[in-house]
Amino acid sequence: MDLSYSDEQRLLGESANNLLAARAQKPGAADLWKEMADMGWLALPLPESDGGLGQGIVDVGIVTEAMGRHRARSNYVAGVVLAGGLVAALGNDAQRAALLPGLADGSLRLALAHAEEGARYNLAHVAVTAKKSGAGYVLDGRKVAVLGGDVADRFILSARISGGTRDAGGIGLFVVAKDARGVTVDGHATVDGAGAARVTLAGVEVRADALLSDNALAAIEQAYDRATAAFCSELVGLMEAATKATIEYTKIRIQFGKPLAGNQALRHRMADMSIACEEARSMALRAALHADDEDARSRSRAIAGAWAKVSRSARFVAEQAIQLHGGMGVTNELEIGGYLKRVVALDAIIGGPDLHLRRHAALTQHAA
Amino acid sequence: MDLTFTAEERAFRDEVRAFLNEKLTPDLKRAHHLTPSVFSDPPVGNRWQKILHAQGWAAPLWPKEYGGTGWSLAQRYIWEIESAAAGAPSVTPMGLRMVGPVIMKFGTQAQKDYYLPRICAAEDYWCQGYSEPGSGSDLASLKTRAVRDGDHYVINGSKIWTTHAHHANMMFALVRTSDEPKKQDGISFILIDMKTPGISVRPILTIGGDHETNQVFFDDVRVPVENRVGAEGQGWATGKYLLEFERGGAMTSGRLRAILADIEKLASTYRDGEKAYAATETFALRRSQAEIDIDALEMTELRIMSSLQSGQNPGSVSSSLAKLRNSEIKQSLTALAVDVLGQDGLYWEGHRPLYEMNAEPGIPEDALTALPEYLNSRAYTIFGGTSEVQRDIIAKVVIGM
Asked: A210: domain CATH number?
């Protein structure tokens, strides 16, 4: 048992915070993705044999925490941990060689196309079909909430080879190019500014070598758990920044002849925000340290518990940050609302705290 | 960074389990289990502490030089988790976790040499003379006065909420030795022999049905000047240093986890129609919420402890935060336990101690403490500084004004 960061991890945190703080000062700066590639962040969790750095979710979480703190609008986790992680986990040598070095150096953008209408965060819900056709498959259906799908070169796309819509078995995972015949990508803005797409497949023909796995659910669940842990860390950075901004604002805003921060009602609120930050930091760390547990059930249970705690705390902090900024909090001038928008986006991506509390309870009862 | 145990740490865990298996007798476990109040009754707690002392494990949080174990973070964690899970008595913190660290930091060599070994060996039983009838949250307004008379202080006044004063042979107290413009000045930290003439103890019965706390009166009580810890008039800083240990100086999450396990066991014996209450969705969701809260507190406590050397002070924000969350979670657990009882939540057993009852209780023995514990636990967010005081402390630091 050891809870201290290594020197390398401390340096990673410093450089991530420095870079993202500097970028936050100049909104028109160059493409963040390119800079993340140069910093080695895209390579961070990918296997060393595929051009990656072979680090775990603790390291990814150090980067995402800085992203949360400086409101970097990015689909980093979706591209690297979800899409990249699934290719690393399921791809054969040729598939990994074709995709991962490009992902690591920033030249190839990947997006996971898994969620569908009506799935409600049930990861086994796959209605998009993959019908065997000669040596390959034909894909039909529609994917939603494809994070970074608006700028992706390839989709890592789930489609059902056999079974009913929510069956655990028979879920295939395919590599589909954005410009393949029959693929329509409808990019759309997202509440947090990071960007996503809906992807429609109409008779899309893929070759046999596009298939990463014909039974991908366990790997998809693992990828989502690892991504969720990384999102927990992002929310820690976000919450701390929102709390800090709120404290600074209430110290300079004078009402009734004194700073707002002199009022006990507001002081206690900010104490609660600080407590929420500390608890979230504890849970994010716990999630990161369980993200690669061998036992899938205990891993998912730890992650569900962490998200239930962290996303609820983050919602509280982000909403109170607006409340304590008063009228200014609801304007776009201050961007304090940007924190809440990211919290809302992540709940839409992962599911909210009630859903994950229920998931935690279900995983507990199945163990008993 | 790693949460898993090394081979040595696993070996230590086996050693702890073997020790608990051998020394923690069924009657000690039962006595602990049937104690609704905050700490084990002194006959039970002292018996356990003497067993620990014989093993050299009486002071897991103390540095080695004072008789502590000198354990690593993982060892302290393993000890707390394992002894709580095994149902070991809650040894009073008033010596080990409160006055002990204060004597280590502020005491004279003679005080260290005399008191610290006696604390480890459970030869002294301490109580805390802090609150007064007129000084609760506003502790610094305290009025119990100590007037110098030669080699003695003569003490007059009253302390209240004095847990186990009726068992204790020693008290550490904050007393006013002078009047200064600032109320925090002029306070001294003093050790009082409870057998000194002029001390009287009045019991206060609390809503859980226990006699745990008291009011203590001082009527011309003569205490040697050598019993003062630290300089005269500097007691406030000493007293606050102690409070930070009281609030955040331990791994409390292990106890909460053990309580949750007990509640789960209880819920599997109560029924809701055809199924065990434990199998209902209502219970499952509350159980999960409680476990998640405990997970978060445990990681917070591990983070705090990992940044400290043994015997070191946890600091104000960390200790207030740990105290707040521990007390809130404890209260929600006791409420959950009462919920499990259903209609049995009506049944009241007034006999104390519950583990020395002759008659057959009207509800299962495992269910007896739920209601008294729920009522007793309302005090958790009040003693040691109310939750509101903790928020004041945290706010002052994080806001910086």
From this structure: 2.40.110.10
Residues 253-312 of chain A whose Cβ lies under 8 A from any Cβ of chain B:
259, 261-262, 264, 267-268, 270-272, 274-275, 278-279, 281-283, 285-286, 289-290, 302, 305-306, 308-309
Architecture of domain B126-235: Beta Barrel (2.40)
The enclosing H or E element of B148 equals: strand B145-149
Average pLDDT over residues A271-286: 98
Task: Write out the residue range of the structural domain in which residue A99 sits.
Answer: 7-105
A287 with A360, same domain? yes
- DSSP states of A209-227 as a string? GGEEESS-HHHHHHHHHHH
Question: Domain count of chain A?
Answer: 3
Residues of A in contact with B292 (CB under 8 A): 283, 305-306, 308-309, 357, 360
- Dihedral angle sign, alpha carbons of residues A205, A211, A217, A221: negative
Judge: B1–A1 Cβ closer than 8 Å, yes or no: no
pLDDT at residue A353, as a whole number: 98
CATH classification at residue A88: 1.10.540.10
The confidence score (pLDDT) of residue A29 equals 65
For the stretch A91-124, pLDDT in tens is 999 999 999 999 999 999 999 999 999 999 999 9
Contacts of residue B129, defined as CB under 8 A and 6 or more positions apart, other chains included, come to B144, B159, B162, B171, B172, B173, B174, B175, B192, B216
Is B302 at the interface with chain A, CB within 8 A? yes
Separation of alpha carbons B289 and A354, rounded Å: 10
CATH (domain of A241): 1.20.140.10
A3 touches chain B (CB under 8 A): yes
B138: amino acid identity, one letter: D
Domain positions in chain B are 7-91, 126-235, 251-399
| Chain A residues near residue B5 by CB distance under 8 angstroms | 1
Q: Which of B74, B395, B399 sits opposite A1 (nearest CB)?
A: B74
Does one domain contain both A124 and A70? no
Which among A264, A286, A365 has CB closest to B299? Answer: A286
As given in the structure block, the two tokens for residue A114 are: 């898994």
The confidence score (pLDDT) of residue B316 equals 85
Hey, what CATH class is B251-399 in? mainly alpha
Asked, for residue A64, whether it belongs to a domain, the answer is yes
Residues of B in contact with A261 (CB under 8 A): 399, 401
Interface of A with B in 331-360 (CB under 8 A): 357-358, 360
Give me the interface pTM, i.e. the ipTM.
Answer: 0.95
Position A2 in a domain: no
- pLDDT tier at A28, thresholds 50, 70, 90: low
Residue pair B31/B40 in contact by the 8 Å Cβ criterion: yes
My answer on whether A85 and A146 are in the same domain is no
Q: Does the pLDDT value for residue A219 go beyond 80?
A: yes
- Would you say residue A354 lies in a domain? yes
| Rounded-to-integer distance, Cα B291 and Cα B277, Å | 17
| Whether residue A208 sits in one domain with residue A165 | yes
A55 lies in some domain: yes
Q: What is the mean pLDDT of each run of 10 residues along chain B (401 residues)?
A: 93 98 97 92 95 96 91 91 96 94 96 97 97 96 98 98 97 98 97 98 96 97 98 96 83 94 97 96 97 97 84 84 96 98 96 92 95 96 95 96 93
